[in-house]
């Protein structure tokens, strides 16, 4: 059955309108879970008719983490939030992907309502932050700042690798984003950054 999906998608551009409508209907009513999974994969890699058919038919990948990534990458935000309310599944999918897949998930997260911090670092925040590379740490810092989560950005400074933490602190200070303090006295280390 999975080969049938590829054959039908291949015929679609060359088909007359009546035949194209029947092909579209067939693509939206695949009974085989393997064929539905293939439609999801093709939807992500090719978009177009495959994406439209997979979304309209409600097809989903079998694995929870793959399902979360698929829903985010296809901008199905309501379905994503229902299936992964705490972001753990997407965090697992993110960590399992190669760099190019991570880039796509980050780009999709910018379009939607996703907690970037949870996705990038997972449940063990301190360990997750230490595992970030410089580019991802910079992206996370920028995402938190642009979302108005400046105090969370400051808290990252102390969890990042030392050099990146210093760079992040300098960047926050240069943007006049200072950590909240309970008193008006400056933090002892804040004056040393100047």
Give the tally of β-strands.
Answer: 0
Number of helices: 14
| Helix and strand sequence | HHHHHHHHHHHHHH
Distance between the termini: 65 Å
What does the overall shape look like? elongated
Secondary-structure-derived class: mainly alpha
- Determine the strand fraction and express it as a percent band: under 5%
Helix content: 55-70%
What does the radius of gyration come to?
A: 22 Å
Unreliable runs: none
Biggest beta sheet attributes: none
Q: Which whole number gives the mean pLDDT?
A: 85
Summarize the structure.
The protein has 194 residues and is mainly alpha-helical. It contains 14 helices and no strands.
3D structure, described in words:
The protein has 194 residues and is mostly helical. It has a domain at 1-59. The chain is built from 14 helices and no strands. Helix 3 crosses helix 4 (48-57), helix 5 (64-73) packs antiparallel against helix 6 (77-83) and helix 12 (150-157) runs antiparallel to helix 13 (162-174). The protein is elongated and about 65 Å long.
